[in-house]
């Protein structure tokens, strides 16, 4: 399982606003194959929002993060790309489902 936790806007926005993310998944991977919790779009306050992504499907995932503050400031979209790879297990160890 690949897991990534991101914290956005820390120190940049002392107020709050709305954040959303677009996720481009590998071919054949659907939204049922990964989680972005607690949500892909939400409100934030205090200039901070934290989300966790996890998947058990290998491949390249691209995240485009967007935010609009309550003051009307729209941040430049930020792209993050990760390459989730299948974990190798030692002899005698079981893979986690």
Average pLDDT, all residues = 81
Q: Which architecture per CATH?
A: Sandwich
Regarding CATH, which class? Answer: Mainly Beta
- Give the amount of beta strand, in percent: over 45%
Distance between the termini: 9 Å
CATH topology annotation? Immunoglobulin-like
What class would the helix/strand composition place it in? Answer: mainly beta
Overall shape: it is elongated
Weakly predicted, low-confidence segments: none
Order of helices and strands: EEEEEEE
What is the overall number of helices?
0
Relative helix content: under 10%
Secondary structure: number of strands: 7
- Radius of gyration, taken over Cα atoms and rounded to an integer in Å: 16 Å
Let me know the CATH homologous superfamily.
Immunoglobulins
Main β-sheet, spatial strand arrangement:
4-2-6-7
Main pleated-sheet profile: 4 strands, antiparallel
Overall structural domain count: 1
List the helices and strands and how they pair.
Elements: E1 2-8, E2 16-24, E3 34-37, E4 41-45, E5 49-55, E6 59-69, E7 78-84
Antiparallel strand pairs: 1-5, 2-4, 2-6, 3-5, 6-7
